[in-house]
């Protein structure tokens, strides 16, 4: 028969902890230089545009250019149907081919600096200029002027509100609504 041996392993004793004073710990940390090598954390709100690679800026702009180009196209379709016109594909192409590159450049450069105070002030003032102009045209403009000016104005107005911080966007929309009420503009027949 097989004899079994008893395991003669000793249980290891726990290592004794060394008591190092806090001053000694800091001295060791400073001697190693580990704190100097640590990567400093930066606040994301203070990042400059140089910190973002160009590819990310282009991707961020494209994610806005595509929907706003389709929004411009949609507003163009809606204004034509509002006045009972049936435009051809060529009329849409003649209208959108020059408009989309201009819109793309505008979106790319404004997206790059949208977090700065100057750009927020620009968006706010632009929304206060474009919003009342478009609403006045819809209420009192001729149908031909409305078909030419309202789709780009509506697209830029929506874009400025989207890019604004929440408080300025709400204030801008409230000011425009107050102006519409003060002017007594009617949008229904």
TrEMBL record:
It comes from Piloderma croceum (strain F 1598). Signal peptide: none annotated. This is DUF7719 domain-containing protein. Residues 119-187 form the DUF7719 domain. Pfam families: DUF7719. Residues 1-20 are annotated as: Disordered. The chain crosses the membrane at residues 58-80, 92-109, 121-138, 158-180. Keywords: Membrane, Transmembrane, Transmembrane helix.
């Amino acid at each position: 028969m097989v004899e079994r041996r008893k395991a003669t392993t000793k249980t290891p004793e726990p290592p004794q902890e060394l008591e190092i004073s806090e001053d000694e710990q800091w001295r060791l940390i400073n001697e190693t230089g580990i704190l100097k090598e640590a990567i400093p954390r930066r606040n994301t709100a203070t990042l400059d545009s140089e910190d973002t690679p160009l590819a990310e800026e282009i991707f961020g702009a494209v994610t806005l250019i595509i929907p706003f180009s389709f929004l411009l196209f949609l507003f163009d379709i809606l204004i034509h149907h509002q006045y009972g016109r049936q435009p051809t594909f060529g009329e849409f192409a003649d209208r959108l081919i020059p408009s989309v590159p201009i819109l793309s450049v505008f979106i790319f450069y404004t997206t790059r600096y949208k977090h700065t105070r100057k750009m927020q002030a620009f968006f706010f003032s632009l929304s206060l200029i474009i919003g009342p102009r478009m609403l006045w045209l819809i209420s009192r403009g001729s149908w031909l002027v409305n078909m030419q000016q309202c789709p780009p104005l509506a697209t830029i107005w929506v874009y400025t509100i989207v890019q604004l911080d929440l408080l300025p966007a709400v204030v801008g929309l409230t000011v425009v609504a107050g102006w519409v009420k003060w002017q007594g503009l009617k949008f229904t027949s």
